[in-house]
Amino acid sequence: MTAALRSTAVATTVACLVVACGCVTTWSRPEGELAAQKPELHAGCSEPVHQPRPEYKTRVTVDQLAEAIRKVAPEYPKTAMEAGIEGMVVVAALVCEHGHVVDTRIVKSIPMLDAAAVAAVQQWTYQPALASRKPVPCWVEAPVMFRLH
Ligand SMILES: [Zn+2]
Q1: Cα(58) to centroid of ligand 1, in Å?
Q2: C-beta of residue 94 within 8 angstroms of C-beta of residue 138
Q3: How far apart are the CA of 46 and the centre of ligand 1, in A?
Q4: Architecture field, domain 2-146
């Protein structure tokens, strides 16, 4: 069992290194500093400089996980409301070192509610994760509840 855990850790480290290398090559012609960067690096955050993002499902060792300090309730889609669809959508959110949600994935899906859940979580504000007392980007899970009554 210990051996299995160890091999998982090794695989994760390798994935991390690959991601770090890939990020260095994202610059193109500098026509105005911000315009030259890949737009998805900045989705949800206006800070111009970011650390390399951990790929989804990559485990990053942190001392403290990112914590939501401001949540925005989702807008209930009318079609889902009429169909009587409710429940919990779990969104994985990449929280950058400034505390903003810069990428998302659906972890637990309710097809008619996923888009509304993601739109809400993108507006959440976080206290960023800390590693060695420094803020770092980190994936966290954000559960979004949809209740009809
Ligand atoms: Zn940021």
Answers
A1: 19
A2: yes
A3: 7
A4: 2-Layer Sandwich (3.30)
pLDDT digits (tens, 9 = 90+) for 27-41: 333 444 444 444 444
Spatial distance between the Cα atoms of 74 and 12, rounded to a whole number of angstroms:
33
With residues binned 3-state (H G I as helix, E B as strand, rest as coil), the percentages for the chain, rounded to 5, are 30, 30, 45
Amino acid 7: pLDDT: 45
Cα(128) to ligand 1 centroid in Å equals 9
Nearest to 105 by CA among 52, 141, 68: 141
Strand, helix or coil for residue 59 = coil
Q: Please give the distance, rounded to the nearest whole angstrom, from the Cα atom of residue 38 to the centre of ligand 1.
A: 14
